[in-house]
Amino acid sequence: MKGRTVVVASALGALVVAGCGSSGGTNAGGGGNGPCKATIGIEAPITGPVAVLGQEQLHFAQLAMSMDNKKNHTKITLKQGDTQLDPAQATTVTQQLTSDDSIVGVVGPAGSQEVDAVGALMARAGLAFISGSATNVTLTEGKYPTFFRVVSNDRVQGKDDANYIVNKLHPKAIMIIDDQEVYSTGLVGFMTPILKAAGIKVFHESVSQKQTDFSSLVTKLTPQTTVVILPWQVAANAQQFGHNLASQHKKVTIFGTDGLFSPDAFTIAGSYVSAFGPDINAIPADAALVTAAKKMGNFGTFGPPIFAATHVIDEAIASVCNAGQTPSRSNVLAAIKKTNEQTSILGQPISFDSHGDNAHGKFFLFKIDSSGKYNLVPG
What we know:
Elements: E1 36-44, H1 51-72, E2 74-82, H2 87-98, E3 103-107, H3 112-125, E4 129-131, E5 147-149, H4 154-169, E6 173-178, H5 182-197, E7 201-206, H6 215-218, E8 225-230, H7 235-247, E9 253-256, E10 272-275, H8 287-294, H9 303-322, H10 329-337, E11 340-341, E12 350-351, E13 364-368, E14 374-376
Parallel strand pairs: 1-2, 1-3, 3-4, 4-5, 6-7, 6-8, 8-9, 9-10
Antiparallel strand pairs: 10-13, 11-12, 13-14
Helix pairs in contact: 1-9, 2-3, 4-5, 9-10
């Protein structure tokens, strides 16, 4: 596949359910003061319009913590913060977490717009936070020095998705619709120049995440427009867009991004969804991990990166304790910067560059079949 790198599913074969990482801490002590104890926070949209994703993220954070505590003999606890994917709510949650001195690291938040809202607060508190789904490029340009992510940024996704559309779908015209949030508009900015350079006519529209009927947009589609790109965060909205297409008898391919990976909410046959994580359901080597995760509910690609992010913080805490220190925000932050995992649940190593980006991040592409199943597009 030109212009795209896809990880072969078997790459996850080396992942063992007991966890993975470089520190491999065991019998972690708390600086000579007994068991290794610490608290980390999680910011996720546990309720609200994308609660299905937030619940998935919470469950995978809990699973990672349970497994890591058992493996490392630590006593790390998790404090929940419900952001509802709303920057204002995320700010309130962050103020609560940063004012709690017992919290030495945070998993999340989920959305790029939320990171933009809380990044300065986290930095001021010296609190490391690792997102498993915030991908806007500007987040790692230096303004939020305690921010990290285990997934790739929009520059990688935008380039790969646009090149796939150009080289495989061959549209004469496309419509690209942002949802007025930082994540969405960022992707539009990276994809549009590539599409136009290929001679494709691009119609750009914008809608609110709160909009739930798209009939008026569908009426604007010309006969030459055969692809609609939806870099959205609410899968149910994309499902409605698909229904609006069908009601007007428009045969158009939907090409979505991360937020649309929701087999329970978005099932329009023939659609594509690019995602920052693999579907571990289809990986035989991860059968035990999948079984453990499914006890907490169905999941897609939003949970595994949160498992990875939580694991990074857990391992950082264990390494601090193994060095004879008591976990604090400063030494946990320093340990996170040194992360060097040779494999992970994401099927790739995890280490951070000087900006907080994962140096090994990749994207995956799926196509939805007539039964609603998401199938990995081979590279």
